[in-house]
Amino acid sequence: MAEARRHENKLGLWGWLGGGRWGIERYAYALHRLTGLGILFYFLLHIVVTSLRAKGIYLWAAGGILHNSFFKVGEFLVFSAFAYHALNGIRLILVELGFAVGKPIEPVYPYQSSLNVQRPLLVAMMILALVLLAAGGYTALAR
Amino acid sequence: MKETKYWTWHMAAGAALLFLLGLHMLIMHTGGFAQWFAPHGNGADSPQNSLFRDGKLFFTLTYVLMLAVALYHGLYGLRTMLFELTFGPAAEKTITVILVAAGLGLFGLGTWAAVAAHAIALAGARG
Known about the structure:
The structure holds 2 protein chains of 2 kinds.
Chain A: H1 13-17, H2 24-51, H3 69-96, H4 114-117, H5 119-142
Chain B: H1 2-29, H2 31-37, H3 47-54, H4 57-83, H5 89-126
């Protein structure tokens, strides 16, 4: 099998984060990656901390070092990142599978961009993410 | 071709996580739903309620499944991002080896903890 052609990333980190003129969807993708990194960092710590329960150590329970308001705020931030990452992830999977990007058409000037076709999907997912955030915020404040 | 397969698994893992992590969030962070799985009061994350869930085989199995799926999704996602910085093939191989080792190590730790906590909860229930 022929080896995949490699393209050098001359932009470095800006190649990750910058959306240029690709529209808000590209920036939503950059934020998807940032929230993904945050969730991964939390998750790796979460595995270690929750594994300690097998030794009878509950750091998050009353009296534990993680039982304070600083970590409660952090928990809500993780929930926010999860809500955004999950709903934007559904959008990315749908787009990757070819849904919500419109049917292929002849490239006749003025050219139509598939980005405008998929905009309603982004808006719908962000509204759902905001609803989840409000529900999570309400629960966090009630605790 | 292999990378396409891994990427498809990455997306499938994301979809599975939506269900597994969604369930986890519902149980841990919503009062009403949590009462079914946290009968002892003091919040779903209290040691008594953690032990209660650890004693159920369903939770032990879903913890291990969630661990595997989330580690794959997260670490493969990280690998994809790192590879976009276009290092050389040797560096890419090193990154892959480190991430696979970290994933297997954390999976081992988490699985051991889930199984050990299940055994402790069952022993406690038997008195």
